[in-house]
Design brief:
Layout lengths: L1 H8 L3 E2 L13 H15 L4 E11 L2 E13 L2 E6 L2 E5 L4 E5 L4 E5 L5 E2 L6 H8 E11 L2 E10 L5 E9 L4 E9 L3 E12 L19 E4 L1
Parallel strand pairs: 7-14
Antiparallel strand pairs: 1-8, 2-3, 2-13, 3-4, 4-5, 5-6, 6-7, 9-10, 10-11, 11-12, 12-13
Length: 215
């Protein structure tokens, strides 16, 4: 479980460059749904998600862990198990409490930083998008949207389940070519909260006993 989380959080989701733009196909209905949700999130001062993070093989989730995610503009903080990731708008800080290590890096232009809603922006250039109807997810009659990479990037497909009435993400499933599956199911959502001014600030003084590596 820890290795899979490290692969997804610390490594981030790698997104392959698009070869030919004209080869991309985006269903109009799916695009409107995703654009409406994106606009809704972008209109908020900040957002908070509490979610379960599941991993497994062959499409079957075998382990789950709770996670939390805060965002404000392009800044965010994500925590799953003993791994925390902070993006302060300039650098990504990966904090591993178990190994007492911190890795600091600039975001790579060819990667998409992890978040429960990262595919709301990356789909525009990197995926074919189809609308697959409705599906009941955790009691919500959700719209089911499938993303398929335009160019090979290690991902076989991504399923997005959204509550169009509330314009919110409900669930995300990422299926890899290696048969790995990662699932984020959002359990609680809050917006426009009064957050600590240092919510997205990395304070080295709190990690004096950690090995800190800046790439």
């Amino acid at each position: 479980m820890k290795n899979i989380i490290s692969k997804i959080i610390i490594g981030s989701f790698v997104v392959g460059a698009v070869g030919l733009a004209e080869a991309q196909k985006i269903d109009a209905k799916a695009k409107k749904i995703l654009d409406d949700i994106t606009a809704n999130y972008n209109s908020k001062k900040n957002s908070y998600f509490k979610f379960s993070f599941g991993t497994g093989l062959n499409g079957q989730v075998t382990k789950t862990e709770p996670g939390i995610y805060y965002s404000a503009g392009d800044k965010y903080k994500l925590k799953i198990m003993d791994t925390e990731q902070i993006f302060d708008g300039s650098k990504i800080y990966n904090i591993n409490a178990d190994d007492m290590e911190v890795t600091i890096a600039k975001p790579n232009g060819s990667s998409s930083m992890f978040s429960p809603i990262n595919y709301l922006t990356t789909y525009r250039n990197d995926y074919n998008v189809t609308y697959n109807g409705k599906k009941s997810v955790n009691g919500v009659n959700a719209d089911f949207i499938k993303l398929t990479p335009v160019k090979s990037n290690g991902i076989k497909y991504v399923y997005l389940f959204v509550d169009s009435a509330k314009k919110q993400m409900v669930k995300l499933e990422q299926h890899g070519n290696n048969k790995d599956v990662a699932v984020i199911a959002i359990k609680e959502y809050k917006e426009n909260q009064e957050l600590d001014a240092n919510m997205f600030v990395f304070d080295k003084n709190k990690f004096k006993n950690y090995v800190i590596t800046e790439l």
